[in-house]
Design a protein that fits this description.
The chain is of the alpha/beta class. It folds into 4 domains: about 10-100 and about 285-315, 3-Layer(aba) Sandwich (Rossmann fold), CATH 3.40.50.720; about 115-255, NAD(P)-binding Rossmann-like Domain (Rossmann fold, 3-Layer(aba) Sandwich); about 325-430, 60s Ribosomal Protein L30, Chain: A (2-Layer Sandwich), CATH 3.30.1330; about 455-520, Alpha-Beta Plaits (2-Layer Sandwich), CATH 3.30.70. The chain is built from 18 helices and 25 strands. The strands form 5 sheets. A 7-stranded parallel sheet has the order 8-7-6-9-10-11-12. A 6-stranded antiparallel sheet has the order 15-14-25-22-24-23, with helices on both faces. It has a 5-stranded parallel sheet with strand order 2-1-3-4-5. A hairpin with a 7-residue loop joins β23 (about 480-485) and β24. α5 (about 105-110) crosses α7 (about 150-160). The structure holds nicotinamide-adenine-dinucleotide (NAD) and 3-phosphoglyceric acid. Nicotinamide-adenine-dinucleotide binds near residues 79, 99, 102, 151 and 171.
C-alpha cells in the first residue's frame, strides 16, 4: 500500500504513554488534550492528520467533517461504536482499532461474577459490620452459562468459566458451532438458549442487530432468577427491561461494566441492590492499556511507512463491475449512491456485504470478483473484524462459506459466496503479511496475486493476443499496467489480474475484450 503522510496526531484520551513515545520516535508530532467538549474537539481537530481515542471521545460526523486533514482515526481499544465509521469512510479516513489488546482484561472483569456478594460485603465491612447471613451466594459449579457472542472475549470467558465447573452454551451467527465445540461451547438458537441459562453474558459489538438483544420478551423466556452480565456495550441488554426484570425478580442479579450513557445519569440500575457495576473498567489494566497504546502507535507507523494496514475497520475501496447478463456496465459505487466510493464498514469486505448486499439482491447484479478480493484481503484467520463483517453479510442475505480445510494449501482460505442463487469461489492466503489471491472461479494464478494497490480483474478467453490488446487499451485510457497475473491454464474462459497505476474511469473501455471485469483499489 502507498505510504500516507501523517505529521500531527491528537490523542484525546488517556492512552498509555508508550503510544506518544512510539509516534514521536517515528517523526510524528503528538499533542495530548483530554476532556475536550465536542466544540473544543471540532475546533482542535482541524490541524491534525490523525486522532487517537478510546471510548469516551465521540467522533461524530460533525467532528469528522470539521477535520480538514484527518487521514486516520486510531482507536486504542476494541469497540468503534463511538466513531461514525461511515462518515469517516466517505471522507476517505481510515478507522483502525486494536482488537486483541484488551481481550484478557475484559474477560477478567466479566468472570469476576456476582455469584457471591463480594463488593457489597466489602462495603459492609468497611462500615464496621460483620454480617455473615446477609451475603449468601450461589455456586457456579454445575450451572449453565449462556454466552451470546462467541468472538475473542466470548471464547476466553467460556474457557475460564468451564474451570469453575459451569456448562457453557452459546449463540453466534458467524463463529461456526464446530469451532466453538472445540472450546466447549455448544451452540443453539437464542430461543433454545434463553430458558436453559442460569447466567447469561453478552460479548457482541453494539450494532443495530444487537441493541436490546436481551429485552422484555427475551427476559420472559429466561429462567426465573437468571443472572446477567454486560461487559460489552451499554444497550445490548435493554436497560429499562433489565430494571423491570430485576424488580420482578425475573432477573436475580446483574453485573454491568457498560451503560448506554456513560457516566449514567439515571442511577436506578446502579443503585439496585442486586446490581454490581463498574465504570467501564473492562480494559483498565496496565497490561491492556500498554498493549492497546503500543498496538495503535505501531499500526499507525506501519501505515505511514506504507508497510501494512493492520486493524483497519474500514478501507477505501473503489470498485466497479460488469454485468454479463444484461451486458451493461455498471458502476456499483454509483448504484449505491456513493460516486464510486464504497462506504464500507468493518473492513472492505463488509462494504461489499453490507452496502452491496441489498444492491446485489435487488438488481440481481453479477457477483463481482471484487467481492472475493475483498473477502480474501480479510480472509486470514488473523483478521479480527471478519466476524463482524460476516454478520452484516448475513443480514444482507449473502451466504459466505469460509473453508480452511486440510485439502487446501497451508494457511489458505477458500471463500464461497452465494447470492441470488449464484456461487462464486476464491482461494487466497496471507503471505508475508500481504493478502494474496491464489485462485478465482477455478482460474489458478501462476503466481499469488498481491491484493494491494489498484487491481483490475477480468474474465476473458485465454489467447496470445490478449495481453498486448489489454495493454494497448489501458494505454489509450491513460493507465499504466504495473503487473499482470495470468492463470496457469492457457485455454477457455480464465480470470486475469492486472495491477494498474490508477483505476479506470470507465470499465466499459474493456468491453470488446473481456466477458466480465471488476476493479478495486485496496
Ligand atoms: N468493557 C470493556 O471495557 C470492553 C473491553 C473490550 C471489548 N468490549 C466490547 O466487547 C465486544 C466484543 O469484543 P470481542 O473482542 O470479543 O469482539 P469479537 O469481534 O472478537 O467478537 C464479537 C462476536 O459477536 C458476534 N456477534 C455479532 N452479532 C451477533 C449477534 N447478533 N448475536 C450473537 N453474536 C453476535 C460476532 O460474530 C463475534 O463472534 C466489543 O465489540 C466491545 O464493544 C468491552
Ligand atoms: O471496546 C473497548 O476496547 C473497551 O470498551 C474499552 O474502552 P476504553 O478504551 O474506553 O476503556
Amino acid at each position: 500500500m502507498a505510504p500516507i503522510s501523517i505529521k500531527r496526531i491528537l490523542i484525546s484520551e488517556s492512552v498509555d504513554p508508550c503510544c506518544k513515545k512510539i509516534l514521536q520516535e517515528n517523526g510524528i508530532q503528538v499533542t495530548e488534550k483530554q476532556n475536550m467538549s465536542k466544540d473544543d474537539l471540532i475546533a482542535e481537530i482541524k490541524d491534525y492528520d490523525g486522532l487517537v481515542v478510546r471510548s469516551a471521545t465521540k467522533v461524530t460526523a460533525d467532528v469528522i467533517n470539521a477535520a480538514l486533514n484527518l487521514k486516520i482515526i486510531g482507536r486504542a481499544g476494541t469497540g468503534v461504536d463511538n466513531v461514525d465509521v461511515d462518515a469517516a469512510t466517505i471522507k476517505g479516513i481510515i478507522v483502525m482499532n486494536t482488537p486483541s489488546g484488551n481481550t484478557i482484561s475484559a474477560t477478567l472483569l466479566c468472570t469476576i461474577h456476582p455469584h457471591v456478594y463480594v463488593p457489597q460485603a466489602a462495603m459492609s465491612m468497611k462500615a464496621g459490620n460483620w454480617d455473615r447471613k446477609k451475603f449468601m451466594g450461589t455456586e457456579l459449579y454445575g450451572k449453565i452459562l449462556g454466552i451470546v457472542g462467541l468472538g475473542r472475549i466470548g471464547k476466553e470467558v467460556a474457557t475460564r468459566m468451564q474451570s469453575f465447573g459451569m456448562k457453557t452454551i452459546g449463540y453466534d451467527p458467524i463463529t461456526p458451532p464446530e469451532v466453538t465445540a472445540t472450546w466447549g461451547v455448544e451452540q443453539m438458537s437464542l430461543e433454545q438458549l434463553w430458558p436453559q441459562c442460569d447466567y447469561i453474558t453478552v460479548h457482541t459489538p453494539l450494532m443495530p442487530s444487537t441493541a436490546g438483544l436481551l429485552n422484555d420478551t427475551s427476559f420472559a423466556k429466561c429462567k426465573k432468577g437468571v443472572k446477567v452480565v454486560n461487559c460489552a456495550r451499554g444497550g445490548i441488554i435493554d436497560e429499562d427491561a433489565l430494571l423491570r426484570a430485576l424488580e420482578s425478580r425475573q432477573c436475580g442479579g446483574a453485573g454491568l461494566d457498560v451503560f448506554v450513557e456513560e457516566p449514567p445519569k439515571n442511577h436506578a440500575l446502579v443503585n439496585h441492590p442486586n446490581v454490581i457495576s463498574c465504570p467501564h473498567l473492562g480494559a483498565s489494566t496496565k497490561e491492556a492499556q500498554a498493549r492497546c497504546g503500543q498496538d495503535i502507535a505501531l499500526q499507525i507507523v506501519d501505515m505511514v511507512m506504507g508497510k501494512s494496514l493492520v486493524g483497519a475497520v474500514n478501507a477505501q475501496v473503489l470498485a466497479s463491475t460488469f454485468t454479463p447478463e444484461s451486458h451493461q456496465w455498471i458502476k456499483l459505487g454509483e448504484a449505491i449512491g456513493a460516486c464510486g466510493l464504497w462506504p464500507c464498514k468493518l473492513n472492505m469486505v463488509c462494504c461489499f456485504y453490507h452496502n452491496l448486499g441489498d444492491c446485489l439482491k435487488d438488481s440481481s447484479a453479477y457477483m463481482t470478483s471484487a467481492v472475493m478480493v475483498g473477502l480474501l484481503s480479510d480472509g486470514s484467520q488473523s483478521c479480527p473484524n471478519l466476524v463482524n463483517s460476516l454478520t452484516l453479510a448475513k443480514e444482507s442475505g449473502i451466504t459466505v462459506t469460509r473453508n480452511h480445510s486440510e485439502g487446501l494449501t497451508q494457511g489458505a482460505c477458500e471463500v464461497e459466496i452465494s447470492v441470488n442463487g449464484s456461487s462464486y469461489r476464491a482461494t487466497g492466503s496471507v503471505q508475508g503479511g500481504v493478502p494474496v489471491l491464489l485462485e478465482l472461479n477455478r482460474s489458478v494464478f501462476r503466481q499469488p496475486v498481491s491484493l494491494t494497490g489498484n487491481l483490475l480483474f477480468f474474465k476473458a478467453v485465454a489467447s496470445p493476443p490478449l495481453l498486448p490488446s489489454v495493454t494497448g487499451l489501458l494505454a489509450t485510457a491513460g493507465v499504466e499496467m504495473e503487473s499482470f497475473s495470468a492463470p496457469a491454464a492457457r485455454s477457455g474462459d480464465q480470470w486475469y489480474c492486472v495491477g494498474l497505476s490508477s483505476l479506470l474511469v470507465d470499465l466499459g473501455a474493456l468491453k470488446s475484450l473481456v466477458k466480465a471485469a471488476a476493479q478495486v483499489s485496496v
